[in-house]
Design brief:
The chain has 709 residues and is α/β, with parallel strands linked by helices. The chain has five domains: 131 residues, Methane Monooxygenase Hydroxylase, Chain G, domain 1 (Up-down Bundle), CATH 1.20.58; 175 residues, Polyphosphate kinase middle domain (polyphosphate kinase like, 2-Layer Sandwich); 171 residues, Endonuclease, Chain A, CATH 3.30.870; 166 residues, Endonuclease, Chain A (2-Layer Sandwich); 32 residues. 38% of the residues lie in helices and 21% in strands. It contains 19 helices and 27 strands. The strands form four sheets. Strands 14, 18, 19, 20, 21, 23, 24, 25, 26 and 27 form a ten-stranded mixed sheet that branches. Strands 10, 11, 12, 13, 15, 16, 17 and 22 form an eight-stranded mixed sheet that branches. Strands 2-4-3-7-8-9 form a six-stranded mixed sheet, sandwiched between helices. The longest helix has 33 residues. The termini are far apart. 40% of the residues are buried.
């Protein structure tokens, strides 16, 4: 409808992302959170911002260079977006460093960890230690580079930390020359200094160690000044898949270019010598607005390594151990247990191990004929990859779709793809023009009553490492209709055959968006007939215009809409006659909220779906995604409980306000609900209950039975 497409009803996607990163930063600023968790959150904001520049800001710059002036849904042109982002990102960086300098560094010192901020602060004893450390461990690794008429300005790698210097030849007293040395990423950036009597652990950063000893790298020069700098480059891969005869080789070639893309951001030490800055700026072609003067260490991602230091466990959350899944006892074959009924998995509260076991048992089981799986991101030493390779070696039909275009995991996925091919797996590299982001595994097994298909569907990646950190849902089923659909999915991926219809699954890019729009409009029609309506949707991001328009229409008709959106949300709340019935919250907690869950009241007969797709154009129109229903009544109750607890969260939830800002809930005088902590507690309690039942059963086993065993 025309009245719901006004630009004023929408927030710009990139500015909404900045608000999300501010919510992450608010965790670093929250004094109720353990100190080492706070430094972890600050590190995450820095890592997030790097990726944002390399992809999103780079893309906007490409649009501006191409003179693309079409406004986005909020009415902003690329030039206007860049101007506003420039202002907001500078504000965000200033807030990062005021958090680091004024809050975290003093608090670390109070708790026994001192970050020595400059090599000039070192005592004679520490200086001697640092100098020896430099000669023994650092000097052999470094490659100092001077620039003169015979040596051009070196290529500065993307995201690398460098020391830039102005130097002058000693004997000649001639002109200033530029020299640089890259701080090696192969060495730890955190250098631990010798212990002192007061039991304070002290560290200094590697760039300070190098700066102190830089004259040893340029022996024939006087060092005029030395300052750290760092650049961000355009890392958005441009691949013409139609022209690429071998996608794997083309991506390998493009990955090398990522290191040398156009420079789009320059970070320099606050107070850098103006002559040095002018030279670096000129060589890299960086305009003033893309220079960030940093009051502190460049690249705060080193804080994640600091979070891992020994001796500070009391300053972190107690490590949570994912609990067993009650329906899976670990003694029977997983297939026997799935046959008894669909099994819901809730990670990381419940362990990811059943998914690994599902593949491992399938690889070894003599009755299993075939395994088919999509892989988007996997861990560095993936047990799932090893099991798939073993399955192929055991003579099973193994088909794996490895998505080579998974951003920043391309290299990793190329390695696994080659390994799987060598093991005898049939490896597919996705569809031309589409990323395959769906999470599905199909196991075909020969049983007494014929062929049976077992399926795992998930909201998150087949990554056993991130499954301990991300909240995701999964479903293990041998439902015949889902099995048929799963076969059709893999036939479509490997052979381009589109089924005429689907039983239970909905797939993007051809069917899923239409399905979502139908479900939202059905709620709207029910509201118009005074039939009970309610939509609850949980996802990572919401910026698809058609979906948002349909939600506004539903809200205007009286549908209550509750959205749990972790990151980008381009909708606005509280617009009279448009979004008064829409409530948006973002939960930023110890685990990364990653699951996608969709609840539709459907006139009192609720339907619940889960899947791999967010409500974004890229997910609904340019990716292969899968949405699947949760139909078993007790599992639907569990999912509803998950949504209800998240909607009650008043500790980690940030509420979207009508002015476009996010605010935490005022908790004074209220019972505290931290949904992530409650899920941890429930999983532990459920496991204890199962263990007690097992003990009780053993207690009451008749003696004759024991003797018989």
């Amino acid at each position: 409808m025309e009245q719901f497409i006004k630009p004023s009803y929408y927030t710009n996607r990139e500015l909404s992302w900045i608000l999300f990163n501010k919510r992450v930063l608010s965790e670093a600023r929250d004094k109720q959170i353990p100190l080492f968790e706070r430094i972890k959150f600050l590190s995450i904001t820095a890592s997030n911002l790097d990726e944002f520049f390399m992809i999103r800001v780079a893309s906007l710059k490409d649009m501006v260079n191409a003179k693309y002036n079409k406004p986005d849904i909020s009415g902003m042109t690329p030039v206007e977006q860049l101007n506003e982002l420039n202002r907001k990102t500078h504000e965000l960086v200033n807030l990062q460093y005021s958090t680091y300098n004024r809050s975290l560094i003093p608090a670390l010192l109070q708790n026994g960890l001192q970050v020595v901020e400059s090599h000039e602060e070192l005592s004679e004893r520490d200086g001697a230690f640092v100098d020896k450390f430099f000669m023994d461990n650092v000097y052999p690794v470094l490659t100092p580079m001077a620039v003169d008429s015979s040596r051009p300005f070196p290529l500065i790698r993307n995201k690398s930390l460098n020391l830039g210097a102005l130097v002058r030849k000693k004997e000649e007293g001639g002109e200033l020359e530029f020299a640089t040395v890259q701080v090696p990423s192969v060495l730890s950036r955190i250098v631990v200094l010798p212990d002192t009597e007061d039991q304070v652990k002290r560290v200094i950063l590697l760039e300070e160690v190098i700066e102190r000893n830089i004259e040893k790298l340029f022996l024939n020069y006087d060092i005029v000044c030395v300052h750290p700098f760092r650049i961000m480059r355009n890392a958005d891969l441009t691949i013409d898949e139609d022209e690429a005869a071998d996608l794997l080789k083309e991506i390998e070639k493009q990955l090398k270019k990522r290191q040398w893309g156009q420079a789009i951001r320059l970070e320099v030490e606050d107070g850098m010598d103006k002559r040095l800055l002018k030279l670096i700026r000129k060589e890299l072609g960086i305009p003033d607005e893309d220079i960030y003067f940093i009051n502190g260490p460049l690249d705060l991602t080193f804080l994640m390594k600091m979070n891992g230091m020994d001796g500070f466990a009391h300053l972190k959350y107690k490590k949570y151990v994912p609990q067993p899944v009650p329906e899976l006892n670990g003694e029977e074959l997983i297939f026997d247990q799935i046959r008894r009924g669909d099994i819901l998995l809730h990670h990381p509260y419940q362990t990811f191990q059943p998914v690994v076991d599902f593949i491992r048992q399938s690889a070894k089981d003599p009755e299993v004929l075939a395994i088919k799986q999509t892989l988007y991101r996997v861990s560095g030493n993936s047990p799932i990859i090893a099991a798939l390779a073993q399955a192929a070696e055991n003579g099973k039909q193994v088909s794996v779709l490895v998505e080579l275009k998974a951003r920043f995991d391309e290299e990793n996925n190329i390695v696994w793809a080659k390994m799987l091919e060598k093991a005898g797996c049939h490896v597919i590299y996705g569809l031309v023009g589409l990323k395959t982001h769906s999470k599905i595994t199909l196991v075909v097994r020969k049983e007494e009553d014929g062929i049976r298909r077992y399926v795992h569907l998930g909201t998150g990646n087949y990554n056993d490492a991130t499954a301990k950190l991300y909240t995701d849902m999964g479903l293990l089923t041998c439902n015949e209709a889902i099995g048929e659909d799963a076969t059709a999915v893999f036939n479509m991926l490997s052979g381009y055959s589109e089924p005429l219809s689907w039983n239970k699954l909905s797939l993007a890019p051809l069917w899923l968006k239409k399905r979502f729009l139908y479900l939202i409009r059905r709620e709207r029609r029910n509201a118009e007939k005074n039939i009970p309506t309610h939509i609850i949707a949980k996802m990572n991001s919401l910026c698809d215009r058609d979906i948002m328009e349909a939600l506004y229409e539903a809200s205007a008709a009286g549908v209550k809409i509750e959205l749990i959106v972790r990151g980008i949300c381009c909708m606005k709340v509280g617009i009279p006659g448009v979004s008064e019935n829409i409530h948006v919250r973002s939960i930023v907690g110890n685990f990364l909220e990653h699951s996608r869950i969709f609840y539709f009241e459907n006139g009192g007969v609720p339907e619940i779906y889960m899947g791999s797709a967010d409500w974004m154009p890229r997910n609904l129109e340019r990716r292969v995604e899968i949405m699947f229903p949760v139909e078993r009544p007790e599992l639907k109750e569990k999912v509803q409980h998950i949504l209800e607890l998240q909607l009650k969260d008043n500790v980690k939830a940030h509420i979207l306000m009508p002015d476009g800002t996010y605010e935490k809930i005022d908790k004074r005088g209220k019972e505290l609900f931290n949904s992530q902590e409650l899920f941890c507690g429930e999983a532990v309690a459920e496991n204890m209950k199962v263990q007690e039942n097992i003990v009780d059963e053993r207690v009451f086993i008749p003696e004759t039975h024991i003797e018989g065993e």
